[in-house]
Amino acid sequence: MYDHRTSEELEAELGEQLRAARVRNNVSQATLAKQAGVAVTALRRLELGQGATVSTLVSVVWASPGFPDTFNNMMCSGE
Question: Which of 25, 39, 41, 42 yields a CA-CA distance of 20 to 30 A from 55?
């Protein structure tokens, strides 16, 4: 099935889901950014859907609480 959301909508949704997983597990942006090896500003932009590199996205997803469930939920949310 084709997903009709724009790239901006997908970025915003992915960011919201990453933020929700982080908050649900009581992890600060500073802690997750450090664990992911990215700048806090890069994580903040990712969570706000304001653009991020693929490298930042992968690093944050990999370090996110609940990985791989967080990633699986993100990929299946458009179905």
Answer: 25
